[in-house]
Design brief:
single chain; 1107 residues; alpha/beta; eight-stranded mixed β-sheet; 43 helices
Length: 1107
């Protein structure tokens, strides 16, 4: 029976709707099941493998059934309806099976093999049935069309193409609309409706014709099928399996590539998926439209061409972060810019992937055509062919995720995939009887040339991506009124400019770790006083003062309020500083839950800062997703510390949901608490409210501390926390804890309580009623990606009053409560005790911050001291012999701020006994000597220290600055020479100061070389450029070069007053070199000061440009 065009179009429409539904379901399932088995790459690979195995099983099962049955359309209708019903019931079924899973895994929690087996069984129980049904739809429909006289090739390729195009539509709908606006359960309902629509269309397509397949007069098809032979048939299936492996390996690699280039948001994953599926659809569409006369030749050429296209494209991949930054700069200023930004990213992904994936997409329909062309068992042949391809997909997913990337990285994994793709092409080429030897030779030679070019020029693509850092915060191009010089030096002016600014040169960082695990690419770098860790290109922690304050506060704030806590669970390791700080308290056990093996491997870079936390016997490490751990562990804790990464990252939003907080609450001992880290930078007020409202939904009591203005540390509990100031003071007097707190300038309990930002009574009033972040509807993840793009800054906790004042004037500000308690003890808090803290918090939170103002106002109300308050904590002052250096230097700074000169001198002398020649102590004592008119004594102090510690670069820097500021340039030469003798030094300040000394000695050539070395390290270091410009301008032969350098320097720093003044003076005749006219590094910093927070946007500080 001949089929009508209308019926054919109806069945094609059905498969389009079915493809859309399939991807909606698949994306929703992945998120739903992640709530039970976690978001690790291994767990997601298991789910995907089970799903694809189900597709393969369904294709074989229903393909054979369709050949035996008489009503393939009815079977198709039944399959679509079964999928619809099952997916609507899936959330309910998931809760039931998830409960069994939690009970079962809890009984065998310490067995990693048992946990893996249970996850596999859970995934199978939830997705295997609908996956089998989905896998059966394509061979059944091909069989249905074959009974209506359709050409086998166009039927298979057309259906597969429409199914993929529908899948693209479903991915777009799920990733950009359904999940962000409707949540998981409602998205599944939409998918189920599409399944029902597909079933309805197929049912209305017309009555079932005779069930016997129609083998028409396609002589080419019969010839191709008959000439293939048994060996050729198996060869095409083997090649298709290899191609399936390579295709999924490419996809897994590109998940990581897109994360490194565009960021790890769920939108990035969606765009990558769209790019891959679109190409597969295009390839199938080509097969359906083009008359294929030599199918084996086509297959061989498509496989080799796919490898060549993928290899040729990879050298462009390293430019992804540069292109992404260019898009951000172009669209950030527009209210609709985020949508345009995503469209631009999608266009880039399509441009890169469409050719290689289209060539891969030619494979399945052509092999299925060859297998079924001369066979009456069309359904069975298509099903088995589909299974071969899908089994290759399963193996590619598992092997790439669990084996290849952890062992040989994303670059090595890509090489394996390319090799398998070429092997598949070689197998097919050997059987391509229609291809002439010359054609085979040309094809193989062309592919070999491409691979050779890739081996020579393209191998470094993954290095650029792996070493790129903090590039996601580049949002602005040159200003509209920028000069040509300004545009030329901007990071977005060229890819080379961008690389100099955002790609880490590991040769400049002697202490570094690069680790690639199934989940992340981790780069940790360290040298001298600096350390940074980047996860998928995003800064997660550093040794900077603001980061250190945050990381220590995260542990100390809750443990000071819970001084008797014994058991702690820490979610997220990062630098390990929070873990190390928690271990300074009197806890008995700490369970560390970290999803990334790479983060743990990066620990050596931070081992000094985190006090060797991982080697502490109280620490037990669980390489696990926090959701799964807290849901399944049988343990309970006094405190749960949760410090995940930023919530715009895919999967992280689940660690800010109501259900996550409930899981945590269920694991708390009576009187316990949960500490939640969040941030206000790159977030909106709506996002901050959403997080706090969701936490408050479970925990009715919330106290909030700030570490600095953008960092939020919320301490949530089921009951009000009993505030015991006596226990806190006793706790503070413990030597290990004092020493740890001293690193971030906490001198006493009052200085710590000054960071209390929001009291329990005010927390709920700040956010009020509104939507919640739930497992079903993870609003935060999508909201966070948008806020990152615009770089918004939440202000709700900065502007709203955080305390409640009673009728008697008392406040629930913990510092005020502490002062009242002190007064009741007969030892009132005095104004001098807060002098150092007030100065410090003004730098950390900014002078205009509401908390700084509140602290200053409160301090004004306190009485003046009757004696110098030089104790670190109220109560029995520790004996001097028990103090370590950090405590002693902190006490010295405290005494200085409080006006206790004698106490400061006593502590500084103790510091130099504990660490002779220590730079900070030497500088502070020297400053005191200078203030007393004892410059020769201060000079001698430095000279003695330099003799004692000749290799201490910190001391050399401090001495150099001191001698410059005190106009003893002759004495500055020794420390300066020590600092610049290393030809690879990156110390721009030392190079510049040494250049000034050489210029004063009239060794101008040496001075020029030193200035140029400084500018090679950092072209924006204006002190070096200004000094060099003065020197060049004084010589007529280099005057033009001076003008050019001045223009470049102003372009890099347009508001610099020194450079502007230099430009004005250069318009007049230059007299002679003025080597000392340009201040080399500004005033010598106060030795005890904490650098101001400035505009630091993130927990991890970016290393110097070009480093």
């Amino acid at each position: 029976m001949s089929q009508s065009p209308l019926v054919r179009r109806a069945l094609f429409a059905a498969v389009f709707a079915s493809g859309s539904a399939a991807l909606i379901h698949e994306i929703a399932w992945a998120r739903l099941i992640a709530n039970w088995i976690g978001s690790t790459a291994a767990a997601q690979a298991v789910v995907l493998a089970v799903f694809m195995f189900g597709l393969a099983a369904g294709a074989v099962l229903f393909g054979r059934r369709s050949d035996r049955g008489r009503s393939p359309v009815s079977t198709y209708v039944a399959l679509e309806l079964a999928i619809a019903v099952y997916c609507i019931a899936l959330p309910t079924l998931g809760r039931a099976i998830g409960g069994i899973y939690e009970t079962s895994i809890g009984a065998h929690f310490d067995s990693e093999g048992w946990r893996f087996a249970l996850r596999l069984m859970l995934a199978a129980a939830l997705v295997l049935v609908p996956a089998v049904c989905m896998g059966g739809t394509l061979p059944v429909l091909v069989r249905a069309l074959s009974t209506r006289g359709a050409d086998t090739r166009t039927s298979i390729a057309g259906l597969y193409a429409l199914n993929n195009i529908g899948a693209v539509a479903g991915t777009l709908a799920a990733g950009f609309f359904l999940l962000p606006t409707l949540g998981i359960q409602n998205s599944l309902v939409v998918g189920a409706v599409l399944n029902a629509v597909a079933a309805g269309i197929a049912k209305l397509a017309g009555p079932e014709p005779d069930a016997s397949p129609h083998v028409g007069d396609d002589a080419e098809a019969r010839t191709a099928g008959e000439s293939l032979g048994t060996a050729g048939a198996w060869a095409t299936l083997a090649a298709l399996g290899l191609s399936g492996f390579a295709a999924m390996a490419y996809e897994v690699v590109f998940v990581r590539v897109i994360a490194l280039g565009f960021g790890s948001s769920t939108y990035s994953f969606t765009l990558m998926l769209i790019g891959f599926i679109s190409g597969l659809g295009v390839g199938s569409l080509i097969v359906s439209k083009v008359r294929v006369r030599r199918p084996l030749w086509w297959l061989a050429a498509s496989q080799l061409g796919a490898a060549a296209a993928m290899a040729s494209m990879m050298p462009f991949v390293e430019r992804l972060p540069y292109w992404s930054a260019s898009l951000r700069a172009a669209f950030t200023g527009s209210s609709n810019g985020f949508g345009a930004y995503l469209v631009g990213q999608g266009a880039i992904v399509l441009a890169l992937l469409v050719v290689p994936t289209a060539l891969i997409g030619i494979g399945f329909p052509l092999v299925a055509y060859l297998q079924s062309a001369a066979s009456p068992r069309v359904g069975s042949k298509v099903g088995s062919t589909y299974a071969w391809n899908t089994i290759g997909n399963v193996l590619g997913t598992l092997m790439t995720t669990l084996v290849l990337i952890p062992t040989i990285g994303i670059g090595g994994a890509l090489h394996v995939a390319l090799a398998l793709q070429i092997l598949a092409g070689g197998i097919l080429l050997a059987f391509a009887l229609g291809a002439k030897p010359v054609e085979r030779g040309v094809a193989m030679l062309g592919t070999a040339v491409v691979m050779l070019c890739y081996a020579i020029f393209g191998r470094g693509w993954h290095t650029t991506l792996n070493h790129a850092a903090d590039h996601l915060r580049l949002r602005e191009g040159p200003p509209p009124n920028a000069t040509d010089a300004q545009r030329a030096v901007h990071p977005l002016a060229s890819f080379d400019n961008w690389k100099k600014r955002y790609v880490i040169d590991l040769e400049r960082w002697p202490n570094h770790v690069l680790a690639e695990d199934p989940d992340t690419t981790v780069l940790a770098i360290g040298r001298e006083r600096e350390a940074y860790i980047y996860v998928n290109g995003k800064g997660d922690a550093s040794a900077g003062p603001m980061d250190m304050l945050t990381m220590e506060m995260l542990a100390h704030a809750p443990l000071m309020l819970l001084p008797h806590a014994k058991s702690v669970c820490l979610v997220g390791y990062g630098s390990g500083v929070s873990c190390g700080s928690a271990l300074q308290h009197s806890i008995e056990s700490l369970d560390l839950v970290e999803i990334s093996e790479g983060v743990l491997q990066a620990d050596p870079v931070f081992r000094t800062l985190n006090r060797g936390a991982l080697s502490d016997p109280r620490v037990t490490v669980f390489r696990e997703d926090a959701r799964t751990f807290l849901r399944t562990t049988p343990k309970k804790y006094d405190l749960i510390l949760s410090q995940p990464s930023n919530p715009w990252i895919a999967g992280i939003g689940s660690l800010f949901t109501v259900e996550y907080y409930r899981d945590a609450a269920a694991r708390l001992n009576p009187g316990g608490a949960m500490c939640i880290w969040f941030h206000q930078y790159e977030q909106s007020d709506e996002a901050v409210e959403l997080v706090l409202r969701s936490a408050h939904e479970v925990f009715p009591h919330v106290q909030i501390f700030f570490s600095y203005s953008s960092e939020v540390i919320a301490i949530a509990s089921l009951e009000p926390l009993a505030i015991d100031f006596a226990a806190m003071e006793a706790h503070f007097d413990r030597a290990p804890l004092r020493r740890d707190l001293a690193r971030v300038a906490f001198v006493d309990l009052a200085s710590f309580l000054a960071y209390h930002a929001v009291a329990d009574s005010r927390a709920a009033k700040l956010f009020g009623p509104g939507p919640l972040n739930t497992d079903d509807h993870q609003r935060l993840e999508y909201m966070g990606a948008r806020n990152l793009f615009f770089g918004t800054e939440a202000s709700i906790l900065l502007t709203q009053d955080g305390y409640t004042r009673a009728a008697d004037g008392s406040s629930d500000y913990l510092l005020e409560r502490y002062a009242a308690w002190r007064a009741a003890q007969g030892d009132p808090l005095v104004r001098e005790e807060l002098a150092y803290t007030a100065a410090l918090i003004g730098q950390v939170l900014m002078p205009e911050h509401r908390m700084t103002q509140a602290l200053l106002a409160f301090a004004e109300q306190l009485p003046l001291a009757t004696k110098p308050p030089s104790k670190v904590a109220r109560g029995a002052a520790p004996a001097l012999e028990t103090l370590d250096f950090a405590e002693a230097i902190n006490r010295a700074m405290f005494s200085t701020a409080a006006g206790d000169a004698y106490g400061a001198k006593e502590m500084l002398e103790l510091c130099l006994k504990l660490e002779p020649g220590q730079p900070k102590a030497v500088m502070m004592l020297a400053e005191r000597m200078v203030a007393e008119g004892r410059l020769p004594d201060a000079t001698q102090l430095f000279e003695d220290a330099l003799a004692l510690r000749p290799d201490d670069t910190d001391l050399a820097m401090t001495a150099m600055r001191f001698f410059f500021v005190t106009d003893q340039h002759d004495k500055a030469r020794l420390p300066s020479e020590r600092l610049v003798m290393d030809p690879n030094t990156t110390n721009t300040e030392a190079l510049t100061m040494m250049g000034i000394l050489e210029s004063e000695a009239q060794r101008y050539g040496n001075a020029v070389l030193l200035y140029r070395r400084a500018l090679d390290v950092d072209p924006a270091y204006w002190q070096a450029s200004a000094s060099l410009i003065e020197l060049l301008a004084s010589n007529p032969s280099t005057g033009a070069e001076a003008v050019e350098l001045l223009e470049r320097s102003i372009a890099l720093d347009p508001t610099n007053a020194v450079l502007k003044d230099l430009k004005a003076r250069m318009s007049q005749p230059m007299q002679a070199p003025s080597p000392g006219a340009v201040p080399p590094a500004g005033p010598v910093p106060s030795p005890g000061s904490v650098p101001p927070a400035g505009n630091q946007p993130a927990p991890a500080t970016q290393p110097p440009a070009g480093n």
